[in-house]
């Protein structure tokens, strides 16, 4: 039934829950999991004041772009480790730049994903009733099956 499952990840607890669901489904159906991290921007070549000390310690210039790329890579690596720990045998990773919902839908289309599993973001007292803006937008923008998890 499911051959390819797309899981957008951002390092949040909700994303971790989505990975667990995806791994469970992937094991059952022998599906491949594609873990996607979306960066809103590539970042600039400048070294932000907050990173100057770190750049000095590392003996390497750490531009905003370097920091964002490394951060994204760490999120993806941790997500892949979680998926494998959950029993998923086939995983791939992808990092895109752009608006999250649009990038998620584009990745789902290009990879012909059967299912998109995303974390749902709670909003105060109405937490159980409302989905986060990205997960809601993805559900509206795609014809593909979507599962949002707490």
Mind telling me which CATH architecture this is? Answer: 3-Layer(aba) Sandwich
Gross geometry? globular
Kindly report the name of the CATH homologous superfamily: HUPs
Q: Whole-number average pLDDT?
A: 85
Could you name the CATH topology? Rossmann fold
Which regions are unreliable across 5 or more consecutive residues at pLDDT < 50?
122-131
Strand count, sense and barrel status of the largest sheet are: 5 strands, parallel
Overall structural class, as computed from helix and strand content, comes to: alpha/beta
Radius of gyration: 17 Å
Please give the count of helices.
5
CATH class label: Alpha Beta
Q: N- to C-terminal separation?
A: 23 Å
Order of H and E elements? EHEHHEHEHE
Tally of discrete structural domains: 1
Helix content: 40-55%
């Amino acid at each position: 039934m499911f051959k390819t499952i797309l899981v957008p990840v951002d390092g949040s607890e909700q994303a971790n829950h989505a990975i667990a669901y995806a791994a469970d489904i992937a094991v059952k159906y022998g599906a491949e999991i594609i873990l996607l991290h979306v960066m809103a921007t590539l970042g600039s070549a400048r070294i932000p004041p907050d990173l100057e000390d770190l750049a000095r310690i590392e003996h390497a210039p750490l531009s905003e772009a370097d920091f964002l790329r490394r951060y994204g890579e760490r999120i993806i690596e941790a997500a892949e480790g979680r998926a494998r720990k959950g029993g998923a045998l086939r995983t791939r990773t992808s990092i895109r730049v752009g608006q999250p919902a649009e990038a998620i839908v584009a990745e789902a289309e290009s990879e012909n994903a059967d299912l998109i599993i995303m974390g749902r973001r709670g909003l105060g007292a109405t937490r159980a009733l409302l989905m986060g803006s990205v997960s809601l937008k993805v559900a509206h923008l795609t014809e593909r099956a979507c599962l949002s998890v707490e």
